[in-house]
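B., you asked whether I could sanity-check this one before it goes into the benchmark set. Here's the sequence:
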Amino acid sequence: MNMNIILMGPPGAGKGTQADLIKASFPIPHISTGDMFREAVSNGTELGREAKKYMDAGQLVPDSVTIGIVAERLQQPDCQNGFMLDGFPRTTVQAEALSDVLAQMGKKLEAAFNIAVPNDILIDRMAGRVSCQNCKAVYNTRFNPPAKAGLCDKCGGELIHRDDDNEDTVKNRLNVYMSQTKPLIDYYSEHGILHNIDGNRATGVVFDEIKGILGSL
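And here's what the prediction gave me:
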């Protein structure tokens, strides 16, 4: 059986970490919206050239182009046994279009994972987040501090705090995320494939739950 899944979660929920663990345990590609666009543009496909026009102008790529790029990507050989979509769909219109694309390919989504963490915990996590200027490794001054304050354990580079990780910006990002994603969570719940995962636990515990669900597909 194919393992076609979607990964959702607010900024700071640990979605990227879980995506890496899933990818390491199951032979399916992790496909993010940004990667898809970059690949289509670099391959010079017709849809890639179309997307580039909007991206270069700083505009959102329209659904019709985005969905076409997703369809192209899902037909590539590495998706034969399944895929993990991250950052798409973002709206119920996109979710319905994805369902249609998969039906035409004789496929369907098996699971949509929503990694949920209370907002106050997310604000704490992100307000304490620092990353290495050199190797981009991420730490948290409260939950996962480096051995030496201000310096990366891996390469010794300087750790910096991203401008968009201050508390007010984080609150705004979370509000935007929730307003956009709530209809999507309801959509996949109604279709009986939503799995709400408590992300406010140790990374390994969260992954064990996801892995158990994936193993039962």
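One thing to flag: The two ends are 8 Å apart (CA to CA). Otherwise nothing jumped out at me.
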